[in-house]
Amino acid sequence: MLFRSLYMMHLDGGEARKLTDAAGGVSNFSFSKDGKWLAYTSGRAGNEQVYAYAVADLGGDAPKATQWTRHTTGIGNWQWSPDSKRIYFVTSDSIDREERARRDQRFTVDARDPASSLKSLWSFDIEGRQEHRFTTDTSYSVGEFTIAPNGRWIGFHGMSPSRYERGILEENDYADLYLLDVSNSKIERLTKNDIISEGPISFSPNSQWLAFFAPDDWKFMHNERLWLRKVDDTGGQFRKLGADFDGDVRTGFWSVNGDTIYFNAGYRATQNVFATIVATGHVVQLTDYKASVSLSHDEATGRLLVNYADPRTPAATYTLAGIPALKDRAGWVQLTDPNKWAREQLALGDEEEITWKSKDGTPVGGVLIKPLGFQAGKKYPLIVAIHGGPAAADVLGFGGGYNAQAYAGSGYIVLEPNYRASTNYGQKFKIETAGDYFSKGYQDIMAGVDYLIAQGIVDSTQMGVLGWSAGGHYANWIETHTTRFKAISSGAGVANWTSMWAQSDTHRLREWYLGDKMYWDDYMNWWKQSPIATIKTAKTPMFIHVVYGDPRVPRPQSEEMHYGLSALGVTNEFWVYPGNSHGIPDVRNQYVKAVAEMNFLDYYVRGNGKKFAWRDVLSALPAGNGPSVATEVVP
User: How far apart are CA 76 and CA 482, in angstroms?
Assistant: First the structure.
């Protein structure tokens, strides 16, 4: 097992110096606000403790760390207090020693949704080396927390005590917000919502106001709004901010005087910077770049940081003097340039936002990437690259999703449709597919294809589809609903909604998308929205991908598609990648997938006569980093 160590290096460069050699490694570290201490946690999982160096000692030959905590159940999530006198932490109320012992003896079976201890909020006093427990209520388990700038208030999520509603992907849906007054240990419950997720509490710089984001009118999947209240107005009403903005309003960071809250939001095929005016609740758009732009604030220095990428500019970080400078990129100071070579050496296809009308007349947008050397009037092969989510959107960034620029470099036009249920186009657009997952989105995608054909730039006899997650869902639906495409690549796609509901770590969201009734109460509606229900109509060659232990769209869904297509005689390949994540976790297999996927699509879409061979991957390895590869063609 690999463990992380803590190193120190001067800002002007030089050799990094190793500070720690702890047997359990280092999990997290943080400097105190006053700059006097460097604290870190170390130890075996479930029994980590806080250790600290005096910063003044770090310049010596052999600085020694002191163990500060010896908490029975270890230290979980932790933060410094603003005055550097305390460390606040969350930890389990009890520890199951038999559970630890059986794992030590290699009885390593994993229980699904196992019973586990509730967690409480504690503090550790630096000077007195004393601990204090703040929460004892067994009706909730403490989750993430936020400390007010003046140190008096702490806002936290209280998670459900139920083992089936806590420690899962959707646990915040079952949580509520609480406010602790550190001065007297009194706790106020701020929200009481049934299956509605609230964002973390954010405090104004003067600690007089608190805000959080949650769905409008407390309705699932509706646009998020800000909810604002005086911190000390116990039991008071919250005021809704951002009602005039048809998108998600969130708490990014506050202005110094607390009159404005800045946040980043998607708008059509872009991401830009917005501001909520606290006094009026009005939302103002601050930037309008044809790009992906995000603004953040460094608390330690007060500097504003911008991350910017557009179709010709790789993502990089900049700093600027103040909010007015957001509109003039010439005044930004570039801090990072991690992909200078890409900007200078890669030839890229032109990328633009386009709009078309769907079957029902609804305007639909997306990103179009043209092939290198694009010529008006010439027809090109098409790849439809469908984003995941579906509550997401493709925007004008660098490179495009799913290796889109690689396809453009190979002579394809690439369409990235922001179909119905995507974000960035308003609440109605995002939620109107509820109860009928595919119909409108499918019509949106096909209308986009027909729009490009009508423009005379796509060869309708050379078209392919690819997607992952929700994009894989749509790839499977397209497989069973049309034969217009020559090949389809589906990653982590659904086959059968009823079987996937129990297999997956996502339950409430899927229930909502399929009509807000469980399948045992509305079985036929779930079934008719499942691609497997119409698999007998499938004809298109298909490449299926999934990660072995995918928790989100588990492997059995891909197996259902593979074996169904195989039994029907439909050409398909099925690859399972190692790992336990929703996406392919390692770069080598990401590369394998990209090469094999393009070869598969090239073979069937353009009929290039060359199927995937491992030599295509192995030949890309640097010299000496793999076996020699024979160059002769093997049938």
Answer: 51
Task: Pick the closest to residue 592 from 571, 610, 576 (CA basis).
Answer: 576
pLDDT of residue 343: 86
Give Cα separations from 531 to 290, 462, 497 (angstroms).
36, 23, 9
Q: What is the DSSP string of 212-238?
A: EEEEGGG-TTSPEEEEEEETT-TTPPP
Contacts of 129 (CB under 8 A, 6+ apart): 68
Q: How far apart are CA 331 and CA 310, in angstroms?
A: 17
Can you tell me the distance from the alpha carbon of 377 to that of 374, in angstroms, rounded to the nearest whole number?
A: 9
- Whole-number Å distance between alpha carbons of 160 and 479: 41
Give the whole-angstrom CA distance, residue 207 versus residue 154: 10
CB-based burial label for 261 (10 Å; 0-12, 13-18, 19+): buried
Question: Bridge-partner residues for 544, per DSSP?
Answer: 490, 574
Q: Which of 251, 294, 298 is nearest to 146 (CA)?
A: 251
Number of Cβ atoms within 10 Å of the Cβ of 601: 28
Residue 441's CB is within 10 A of a number of other CB atoms, namely 25
Residue that the structure tokens 């029975």 belong to: 72
Q: What is the pLDDT of residues 356-380, one digit of tens each?
A: 999 999 999 999 999 999 999 999 9
How confident is residue 99, by pLDDT bands cut at 50, 70 and 90?
Answer: confident
* CB-count burial class (<10 Å; 0-12, 13-18, 19+) for 549: middle
pLDDT at 633: 35
Tokens 């900007």, residue located: 343
Place of tokens 């872009």: 270
Lowest mean pLDDT among 119-123, 502-506, 553-557: 502-506
Mean pLDDT taken over the chain: 93
The arithmetic mean of pLDDT across residues 72-94, rounded, is 95
Listed residue (403, 365, 328) closest to 598, CA to CA? 403
Q: Is the bond leading into 324 cis (omega within 30 degrees of zero)?
A: no
Rounded Cα–Cα distance for residues 481 and 529 (Å):
12
Interatomic CA distance for residues 179 and 154, integer angstroms: 6
| Structure tokens, 73 | 């159940």
Of 425, 428, 401, 429, give the one whose Cα is nearest residue 415.
Answer: 401
Specify the residue for token string 């967690």: 119
